[in-house]
């Protein structure tokens, strides 16, 4: 079972609060249970390990995409758009801080990232099969 302390020890470069870690864990567990129709036996060590690898990869991806709020005290959201132009050709470059996403765009990117990670993890296991398995309650 992956705890917050184990995650911080393993991935020291990622700064995340314990409350954010727990929040992402609960959202991810709820979405996994929904998409797999509660077929995952979380008492199984194999399934726990698979879920916690998924959790770690989602947190790393969210951090990489800049979708986890950082408490670095830098609240300047104006950002600079860097551009170059040669004659009629013009190219603009955006910093990671220059384009701020609206809350709905940010939530959509988070949901898409989580859904993609769940599909990659559980897609070939048969747990996301929408049909009925014989002998299933």
Topology readout:
Layout: H1 4-10, H2 18-35, H3 45-64, E1 81-86, E2 89-94, H4 103-122
Antiparallel strand pairs: 1-2
Describe the structure.
The protein has helices at residues 4-10, 18-35, 45-64, 103-122; strands at 81-86, 89-94. The chain is mainly alpha-helical and 137 residues long. The chain has a two-stranded antiparallel ribbon with strand order 1-2. Strand 1 and strand 2 (89-94) form a beta hairpin.
Which features does this protein show?
two-stranded antiparallel ribbon, 47% helix, 4 helices, extended, 2 strands, single chain, 137 residues, mainly alpha
Morphology call: extended
Radius of gyration: 19 Å
The H/E string reads HHHEEH
**Percent of residues in beta strands:** 5-15%
Structural class: mainly alpha
Number of beta strands: 2
**Strand order of the main beta sheet, please?**
1-2
Biggest sheet layout: 2 strands, antiparallel
Low-confidence parts lasting 5 or more residues at pLDDT below 50? 71-79
Number of helices: 4
* Distance between the amino and carboxyl termini: 27 Å
Mean pLDDT reading: 84
Q: Helix coverage percent of residues?
A: 40-55%
Briefly, what is this?
With about 140 residues, this protein is mainly α.
